[in-house]
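Intended use. Records such as the Type II toxin-antitoxin system HicB family antitoxin entry shown here are meant for training and evaluating sequence-to-structure methods. They are not intended to support clinical decisions.
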Amino acid sequence: MRAIKFTSWQEDRFFMGFLNEYPDYQTQGLTKEELIENLKDLLIDLESGQVPYIRKVEELWVA
């Protein structure tokens, strides 16, 4: 098990969100729980290679 950070907000009656490592790919749900399940499914798709040209946020360490 691992922790994945995500950003979420409510827009009208929908909960919107994205995985912080993949901010270009948003999903939604009618409840926060549904949003979280959709984010898990999205992560599986992104990490399986099903989605082409994935942009990912990474860190660069400099001295």
